[in-house]
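Mods, move this if it's the wrong board.
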Amino acid sequence: INKYNNNYSVIGTDPYFTNSYCQYNYSFQDIALGKITNEYDIAICCYAYHLLEHSWQHSFLNALSEIVDTFIILSPGKKIKFNHLKWKLVKECRENKITLLIYKRII
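Not the wrong board. Structure tokens:
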């Protein structure tokens, strides 16, 4: 999500799916390799974070910290929290079998 002149735009990426929001087909690995260079206000990972291979997690979170200020994870899983030097967990809740985590980039 990107805010520009009080207007919001939503741009999505999914390696397997396209629609009016999913303009890119980047994977977690593509993001980890720095293929997205535009800056965004928020990144939302909805029901997919568990698909990120552990071996890519550190690189992905480093690269993501270069392009977004806030990272939101929605997941049915309970064990999706992470510790990373560039991210601080600011909100956590679980309701109706859905976990919500909100991380802010540490500057």
